[in-house]
Amino acid sequence: MPVSGKEKVFETGQAVVVKHTGSHYLLSRLPEWKPFLAVIKGKLRLDTTTTTNPIAVGDVVEYEDLGGRESVCSIKKILPRKNCIVRRSTNLSRQNHVIAANIDRVFLTITLRDPEVKLQFVDRFLVTCEAYGVPVTILLNKADLYRGEENQGDCLADEDLAQMAAGFIQIYSGAGYQVLETSVKTGYNIDRLRELCKDKVVLFSGQSGVGKSSLVNALDPSLNLKTAEISQAHLQGRHTTTFYQMHPLSCGGFVVDTPGIRGFGLVDFKKEELSNFFPEMLRIEDNCRFAPCTHTHEPGCAVKEAVEKGEISPLRYSSYLAMLEDDGKYREGDE
Ligand code: GDP
Ligand code: ZN
Question: What is the DSSP letter of 122?
């Protein structure tokens, strides 16, 4: 990574944490990409009781030059986060690990085959994004598996997969999510993905093998993310020492590299709040006769009525019911 080295930064100002390595941080005044070193010095009230890393990649901080010969800045203050995504630490403590803060968009990457998507995983992931206030776009990658290249007609298309794709898109765009079909192999919609990343801090998430690193490399071939190596170390249970970092994309925008992260732990919520994280339910739940309504047994429930009319997908509704039943088990389902 290009570090500005001895080139001194004398200003005091605000910058974004682009990397955290042990006791040091790299900051850059985004959208400018000139990372410089910073440390925590002096009094900075940090919450170390609930998180293992109170300052995370994506945090906006106020820094001050330390003067003297050191080309190291001091972090004075962390600005309030607009959102953050966390995962629970594997140890039995209640601590969370903040993966990243101030994310503009998460790309939940899925595929219909190799690997086959599990809708319950998708729904849980989407609920987590809603709970954390992180905008999400679903990337239906490997579209080449069912979508013949334009100039070749449909001769390569797999009809069953094509039908599954249409069904998937109907469910999730019907729920209010943006779904973008992509193919790294044919380049399909990679330009649209690039537009979505422009000037944004983004993060790719999804099961292993869906093509996250391929997509990032397609966006910017100079970014050869060595995710396989890092996730190997990660799988050996050392994730509390895994450092996340941000990379600049040549097309504009910044991608947070999260080796080995498939999903995020879920925040605690009350049962009657769960439907707030299903946008298609949130839209109509004011019409339920009872408030709060769990949309399970209550008479005059607008959500159940919408499911019966086919306005809400029965698959989404059954995910909702499963999550109500689960009572927290899935919160750890991030690996
Ligand atoms: P990751 O684990 O999510 O980072 O997935 P990778 O980027 O390592 O990709 C997993 C496999 O899927 C690799 O063999 C890729 O070549 C392949 N792959 C990625 N994108 C596509 C695509 O759009 N179409 C097809 N057919 N294969 C893809
Ligand atoms: Zn209801």
Answer: H
Residue 149 contacts residue 290 (beta carbons within 8 Å): no
User: How much is the pTM?
Assistant: 0.88
Is the domain 84-257 a CATH 3.40.50.300 member?
yes
111 lines ligand 1 (CB under 6 A): no
Domain 271-324: which topology? Ribonucleotide Reductase Protein R1; domain 1 (1.10.40)
Q: Which pLDDT tens digit goes with each residue over 67-91?
A: 766 678 999 999 999 999 887 766 5
The residue whose CA has the least distance to atom 11 of ligand 1 is 209
Which residue, by CA, sits nearest to atom 15 of ligand 1? 211
Q: Are 168 and 111 in contact (CB under 8 A)?
A: no
Let me know the angle formed at the C-alpha of 329 by 326 and 331, rounded to the nearest 5 degrees.
115
Closest ligand to the CA of 147: 1
Q: Which ligand is nearest to the CA of 303?
A: 2
The residue behind tokens 């080449």 is 144
What is the domain class of 11-78 according to CATH? mainly beta
Per-residue pLDDT reduced to its tens digit, 249-301? 998 999 998 766 666 666 667 888 999 999 999 999 999 999 999 999 999 99
